[in-house]
């Protein structure tokens, strides 16, 4: 972990492979080395990537949002400055005419297509964090959207003074539709949950992923049929299934692979 805190505007000669902490604000880094230097940045002090490589005696300037830096090249002189901010009068608008904006060396905001902003960097999974609070890299609350091991995670998290568990709400102004495998499966309309198509969706799997309990304040409406039920009347015939016979006024229950009936209801 870092042993030296860099100060804004004060040049320092870096020790090779030693980690240094940058000021909390985004900075402009300027460095020079007689043989050239690869200065690397990190957010956590563990995983580093190159911010840029200077040629011999070149004065290299980059803008970085890194928290820590280090370099394998000894005698690299580095100065950290406050990064300039592009601003426009409140009554006007401005633009940056570019296809890509590179932050550090591994965060790339780019124009994917018309009206489409992308965050990408080759085959490296990207992440996006929205903060509720931030003191430093050890004390914060944030929403994380990250690709990890080819899985996309969306979660609220925190550390240090921001370790309070925060709630998350997903609310649509109209209907809310969720699905998987590239399709739509369930629709929330107000307080009603329905499948997107009739008689094609299940809750749970009989042998391996059952719903433990279902609690209702109203009633459960079972399947009805005019006549004796058979396995062909249901999807995935399973013991415990129940069908109401509207012709004979009987309740049929599947037990031991056979449909068994009650006496006629009066």
Question: Secondary-structure blueprint of this entry?
Answer:
Blueprint: E1 4-5, E2 12-14, E3 20-21, E4 27-32, E5 37-42, E6 49-54, E7 60-64, E8 68-70, E9 76-82, E10 100-103, E11 107-113, E12 116-119, E13 127-136, E14 139-148, E15 151-159, E16 176-178, E17 186-189, E18 192-195, E19 223-225, E20 242-245, E21 250-255, E22 258-261
Parallel strand pairs: 1-3, 19-20
Antiparallel strand pairs: 2-9, 3-8, 4-7, 4-9, 5-6, 5-8, 10-11, 11-12, 13-14, 14-15, 16-17, 17-18, 20-21, 21-22
Which labels suit this protein?
266 residues, four-stranded antiparallel beta sheet, mainly beta, 22 strands, 0% helix, elongated
Strand proportion: 35-45%
What CATH calls the topology of the domain at 4-82 is Jelly Rolls
Fraction of residues in H or I helices: under 10%
Distance between the termini: 79 Å
CATH level-two architecture of the domain at 4-82: Sandwich
* Sheet with the most strands, sense and barrel status: 5 strands, mixed
Number of strands: 22
**Average pLDDT:** 89
Unreliably modeled segments: none
Structural class based on helices, strands and sheet pairing:
mainly beta
Describe this structure in words.
The chain is mainly β. Among the domains are: 79 residues, Jelly Rolls, CATH 2.60.120; 63 residues, no CATH class; 39 residues, no CATH class. Helix content is 0%, strand content 42%. It contains no helices and 22 strands.
């Amino acid at each position: 972990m870092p042993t030296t805190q860099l100060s804004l505007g004060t040049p320092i000669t870096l020790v090779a492979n030693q980690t240094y902490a940058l000021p909390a604000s985004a900075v402009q880094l300027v460095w020079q080395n007689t043989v050239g230097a690869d200065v690397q940045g990190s957010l956590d002090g563990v995983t580093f990537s190159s911010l840029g490589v200077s040629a011999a005696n070149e004065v290299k300037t980059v803008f970085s949002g890194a928290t820590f830096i280090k370099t394998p090249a000894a005698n690299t002189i580095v100065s950290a400055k406050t990064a300039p901010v592009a601003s426009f009068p409140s009554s006007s608008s401005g633009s940056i005419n570019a296809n890509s904006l590179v932050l550090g060396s591994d965060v790339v905001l780019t124009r994917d297509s018309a009206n489409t902003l992308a965050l990408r960097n080759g085959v490296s999974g990207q992440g996006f964090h929205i903060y509720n609070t931030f003191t430093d890299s050890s004390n914060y609350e944030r929403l994380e959207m990250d690709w990890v091991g080819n899985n996309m995670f969306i979660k609220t998290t925190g550390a240090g003074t921001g370790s309070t568990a925060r709630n998350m709400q997903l609310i649509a102004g109209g209907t809310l539709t969720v699905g998987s495998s590239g399709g739509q499966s369930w629709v929330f309309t107000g307080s009603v949950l329905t499948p997107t198509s009739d008689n094609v969706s299940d809750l749970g799997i009989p042998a391996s992923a059952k719903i433990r309990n279902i609690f209702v304040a109203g009633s459960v409406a079972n399947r009805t049929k005019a006549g004796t039920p058979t396995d062909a009347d249901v999807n995935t015939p399973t013991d415990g299934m129940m069908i109401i016979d509207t012709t004979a006024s009987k309740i049929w229950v599947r037990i031991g692979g056979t449909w068994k009936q009650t006496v006629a209801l009066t």
